[in-house]
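hi! just following up on the protien thing from before. the input was this:
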Amino acid sequence: MRLLLKPALSRSWRDSETLQFGTVRRYAGVLEHVDRPLRDFLGLIDGTRDRPALLAAAERTGLGREPTEALLDTLERTGLLDDADATREALARFPQPHRDQLEPDLASLSLVHSGPGAGPAVLARRAGQRVEVRGAGRIGAAVAAVLAAGGTGTVTVADAGRVGPGDCSPAGLPPSDIGRLRATAAREAVHRVRGRRPAPRTRRAPDRRPPDLVVLAPRDGSGAFAGGTYAAKQLLRGGIPHLYVGVVEELGVVGPLVVPGVSACGHCLVLAREDEDAVWPRLLAQIAEEGPGRARTPACDTALATAVAGLAALHAQLHLDDVRPPSVDGWCEVSASDGMTRRLRLRGHPDCGCLWQPMPPG
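and the predicted 3d structure came back as:
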């Protein structure tokens, strides 16, 4: 392990002998009594030396082995050290130029996951993950692009028809894609954010692995109204985590993110709303079907759609990184009228059965 002072942390002098790493208090660390020899030694923690080499260098400079051991332990305990070898190995899993684009993402991961090599391990794991986005509108295409840019190895987008003007957004499909097949345009958007041209489509054996996550983002915004649809039931039966996301009128919704058998599902939300409004299932069925129940021009503010897509992608990444996002057992709402974001709690509904424990034998 070649140790490295995390490059994501700024370095500021609080006074002539007190050095602060980082700006945000949650991640900041302070090192006191930093004299000239110690300052020179900190410059050696640059990712080219392992711990024994650093200790040997410290002895040569007169710092002493035991004080240097204590210093390195302190730097590691306060989350200031990273593993340069793990960083290089993680980035090597991605082709150029995507590798260079991921350096800021890796810098962020090194703060969220503080141990040496922990952030690179998360990025390396992302390279092997698979996400399926269902819907290539303003939100779905943007979610797919952001996840691909953040290192998710395989991102596929499923949708039918051709791109319309209302599908376009700065974070997803550009206006130049109008009239093209949505599936093709979305596939190219995923490759574009990685700095690569999509390879020609060839016949090959389908990937039988279930996705690590499915994002349900239909273009009409009905993904904001999680429900007991056939697709959702299939995902539950298959044990596949899935996230509902959409914009309906002036409200953007992210969640719930359903972990089958562990957290409340979309049907729990339908039943909870039915408890408040008995005709809700009838309204939902009309909204979800082609017909008079749908708005003639679905409202989807560009800024709101972009914010919702970014929030959904962040929640998806957190889940894939084994961090529980707030959309598990809940959902988040963002309003175009005031820009406020709030989280609402969702309990497993007793009539749903998605969290029922099997009866013991006998």
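The domain at 128-345 is CATH 3.40.50.720 (Rossmann fold).
The first helix runs from residue 36 to 42.
cheers
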